[in-house]
Design a protein that fits this description.
D-amino Acid Aminotransferase, Chain A, domain 1, 15 helices, 17 strands, 4 domains, 5-stranded parallel sheet, alpha+beta, Dna Ligase, domain 1, about 25% strand, about 40% helix
Length: about 450
């Protein structure tokens, strides 16, 4: 055996469901398994161009898989797809002897297996032990098992309050932490009287689920509580904070942070687009994603939070989400102790060695007309772009046949505005072709 190989593990769903205080049931749990456990897994194809094997849930569109690698100019790696029982990628692999045998064969010629993952779970450490049993040295790009608690602790929205108390340069919005429904009603009422608008957030959530904004309108508290009691995302403790009004034309700053043995090794700047003040929709990635002043503030905050996490024993990728306030202050809202959903954009920037030259705009839920197919309507649009040298890719096509069909798209350009313009063009062309129009009509749309 010689050399090292990457084992790419997009274990988003089991990561989101791992937290002991988050017991999702019904539609909420099914939505996480379906969206994070299948659709978002496909972004991992763009994490790296190093020698690798990719774990993916069954149902990969092989034409799409070949196309995006050809467009990137890199060899398509082998992928292993375990039988879907739970819908959780690593758990299903651990139950599938045939998939394990296939994976073992794919790794057999390499001494070192470097496991790249969304974030640590108990199943990840079981998989690492299994691969070691096959005779490999295993390197995990996350906390070692003895420090697993650090990942759980930092991932809670409460942890950033602790860091802010210890580090005055890290700012958080004033708030109250409550542990039952009676306290929640009282805290909402008191905070609304003081601030006029508040956001209530559970310790663990997914892409804005588990959060809600409450204003001073009559019946607002009652309506919020009515909805929250029927949503299994809303588990205690719940943090009620002053809603920070967002500065215009900035987006919500976020940073992906790589923490190694020596400390912070890399910071990738991002700007999130959200709806209703909290629901995630898209992200721009790269130095050009934010105005320079906000980028400098975010970089400082990333190094400060990253150094604190490093001191606790954290290793691997993590991200911080923030709000750029109209008061010209940067507020840190939470830490996600994992790869963020935008890390495929960071992977492309590193692949191209263009972290300072390009900005990527990643859109995760582009709605498309029912009946749209990859072969007839999506592929022709991207083939025309690729022929023109445009760096744009469909990063997930697994939602094509859902009741509300969607795809994920990413585009790169020297500026954020140009990248977003490419995405808008892609959407217009797909819609035109799906409705029987021609590419020429799409160009004029």
């Amino acid at each position: 055996m010689t050399g090292a190989i990457q084992l790419i593990i997009p274990n988003s769903a089991e990561y989101f469901l791992r937290d002991p205080d988050l017991n999702l049931i019904g539609d909420e749990r099914a939505g996480v398994v379906r969206f994070s456990g299948t659709y978002e897994c496909e972004h991992a194809v763009f994490w790296t161009d190093e020698p690798r094997v990719v774990l993916l849930p069954r149902g990969v569109d092989d034409r799409w898989f070949r196309d995006v690698h050809a467009a990137l100019g890199i060899a398509a790696p082998p992928y292993v797809a375990p039988a879907m029982r739970s819908g959780l990628l690593v758990e299903d692999l651990l139950r599938d002897g045939a998939a394990q045998a296939e994976l073992r064969g794919r790794l057999a010629t390499h001494d070192v297996v470097r496991m790249q993952l969304v974030g640590p779970t108990e199943e990840i450490y079981q998989l690492a032990a299994l691969v070691r049993g096959w005779g490999h040295e295993v390197e995990l790009d996350c906390v070692p098992e003895k420090d697993y608690w650090v990942s759980l602790y930092l991932d809670s929205k409460v942890s950033v309050l602790d860091i802010a108390r210890q580090t005055p340069s890290v700012q958080v919005a004033p708030g109250m932490l409550v542990s039952n429904w009676t306290e929640l009603r009282g805290a909402l009422t008191a905070m609304l009287a003081r601030h006029g608008r508040v956001i209530a957030r559970t310790a663990y959530g997914v892409a804005g689920d588990g959060s809600g904004v409450v204003g001073g309108e009559p019946g607002g508290v009652d309506a919020f509580l009515h909805n929250a009691t029927r949503d299994s995302f809303f588990a205690f403790p719940i943090l009620v904070q002053r809603f920070v009004e967002h500065a215009p034309d900035v987006g919500c700053p976020a940073a992906d942070i790589l923490i190694g043995e020596a400390g912070v090794e890399d910071v990738v700047l991002c700007a999130l687009t959200v709806e209703h003040g909290y629901l995630f929709r898209s992200v721009d990635v790269g130095d050009g994603a934010l105005p320079p002043a906000w980028g400098e503030r975010l970089t400082r905050a990333a190094h400060t939070v990253g150094a604190t996490a490093h001191g606790l024993g954290y290793r691997g990728w993590m991200c911080i989400d923030c709000v750029a306030g109209t008061d010209d202050r940067l507020y840190v809202t939470e830490i996600n102790a994992r790869r963020s959903g935008s890390l495929h954009a960071g992977g492309l920037l590193r692949m191209w060695k263009a972290e300072r030259q390009l900005t990527l705009s990643a859109h995760f839920t582009m709605g498309i007309p029912a009946g749209t197919t990859y072969e007839q309507h999506i592929r022709p649009v991207f083939q025309r772009l690729w022929a023109d040298g445009v760096r744009a890719y469909p990063t997930s096509v697994r939602g094509l046949h859902w009741d509300e069909p969607m795809i994920a798209v990413i585009a790169a350009a020297p500026t954020r505005a140009e990248a977003r313009s490419i995405v808008a063009r892609i959407e217009a062309e797909i819609h035109t072709l799906s409705r029987g129009g021609s590419p020429e009509l799409a160009d004029s749309a």
